Amino acid sequence: MTAIDDRMTGIFENLEVPEGFKAELIRGEIVMMAGPDLAHNLIVESIVDQIPRTRWHRLQTQDVAFPADASEPQPDLVVIERGASEGLGRLVPAPAVTLVVEVVSKTSVLRDYRTKRELYAEGAVPVYLIVDPIKGVCVLLTEPSRSTASGLPDYVSERTTKFGEPVPLDRVGIVLDTAEFRVYS
Fold first, then answer.
1. What is the pLDDT of residue 7?
2. Which residues contact 62 (CB under 8 A, 6 or more apart)?
3. Which intervals hold domain Putative restriction endonuclease (predicted)?
4. Cα torsion for 19, 36, 116, 130, to the nearest 10°?
5. Domain 36-176 adopts which CATH fold?
């Protein structure tokens, strides 16, 4: 990291985020956003309820560490296998993460579809699920690669399904039922 990245990380770690907002450090930039709406939260709740607690930690409001990118995103849901990361602290290292879920909002479209896609692929997060209540689809990304034809990190496999259709999350051993997922009004 550069001196600027170190300073931004220091500022971020000491940032007092107003109630009702969340903040992320994405590639050295502090991004603040308003808290999610009800449709967003109901989608996250549905996903959490379907992932077996006996094998997985299903964490909301969990920061993930990508030190090489000066990034500490806070995905809508972070899934790690029990025992994969038992350390205490604010950050879970990216290599310990099995699945990240981002539920798209009107202000996060570019970040979720592009910036975080590259970030999670570069960090070798095995599964990235984008749930898009604007379009009514889920985009399942697997097989992260640091070098693709475009020269940017990306996922080799991409599968798009409409809300209401099942989404196989083989890595966590479930088929995600999306029947309850709703588009934004």
1. 64
2. 74, 75, 78, 92
3. 12-144
4. 160
5. tt1808, chain A (3.90.1570)
- Which structure tokens are listed for 115? 């910036």
Return the amino acid letter for 3. Answer: A
Query: Tell me: the pLDDT tens digits for 25-50?
Result: 777 777 777 778 899 999 999 999 99
CB 112 within 8 Å of CB 139:
no
**Per-residue tokens: 79:** 């899934």
Structure tokens at 70: 């000066």
Residue 3 is predicted with a pLDDT of 46
- Paired with 77 in beta bridges are 101
In angstroms, rounded to a whole number, what is the distance separating the alpha carbons of residues 105 and 150?
26
Helix (H) / strand (E) element for 50: namely: helix 38-50
Buried b (16+ CB within 10 A) or exposed e, 122-141: bbebbbbbbbbbeeebbbbb
Q: Per-residue pLDDT averaged across 51-80, rounded?
A: 92
Residue entry with tokens 């450090």: 25
Per-domain boundaries in the chain: 36-176
